[in-house]
Amino acid sequence: MNKNVQALGRMKSGKMNNTEKAYAQYLEMQRREGEISYYSFDNINLRLADNTFYKPDFLVMRSNGQLEIHEVKGHWTDDALVKIKVAADKFPFKFIAIMKQTKRNGGGWDVRDF
Fold first, then answer.
1. Residue 71: pLDDT above 50?
2. How many helices (H) and strands (E) does the chain have?
3. What's the mean pLDDT in 13-32?
4. pLDDT higher than threshold 70 for residue 93
5. What is the pLDDT of residue 72?
6. Which residues contact 44 (CB under 8 A, 6 or more apart)?
7. Which end is more exposed in the chain, N or C (fewer Cβ atoms within 10 Å of the end residue's Cβ)?
8. What's the chain's Rg over C-alpha atoms?
9. Percentage above 70 pLDDT, the chain
10. In the predicted model, what is the mean pLDDT of residues 47-69?
């Protein structure tokens, strides 16, 4: 079996899908406006339990120093919701779920705090 084969819908580690790219542009705009001082993509891995990890999409630092984890999804699976809820209970970061709204719904971002 080829080790480089990815599941359908999954990007290679460190590569952004189109929704993540659009959100990174939004974060860059916030950085330039001074709302956030830092953001990075796909650079931390949180251990939730033995052999269970959560690798969030973005680590974001607000201009006041508060650290946040931003998870960007086109749609939410049960597994992804469980992992972000467990991580929010375990770690001292603010966890935010981001979902791109359709143009029919006005575009922009649907934001849910954990």
1. yes
2. 2, 7
3. 94
4. yes
5. 96
6. 55, 56, 59
7. N
8. 15
9. 87
10. 96
CA distance 63 to 44: 20
Compute CA 7 distance to the chain's CA centroid, rounded to the nearest angstrom. Answer: 19
pLDDT at residue 90 is higher than 70: yes
First to last CA, the chain: 39
CA distance 48 to 38: 25
Q: Is 96 exposed, middle or buried (0-12, 13-18, 19+ CB in 10 A)?
A: buried
Write down the mean pLDDT value for the chain.
89
Residue 103: burial class (beta carbons within 10 Å; 0-12, 13-18, 19+):
exposed
Indicate whether this model's pTM tops 0.90: no
Q: How large is the greatest C-alpha to C-alpha distance in the chain, in angstroms?
A: 48
Element (H, E) at 55: none
Cβ atoms of 96 and 71 closer than 8 Å: yes
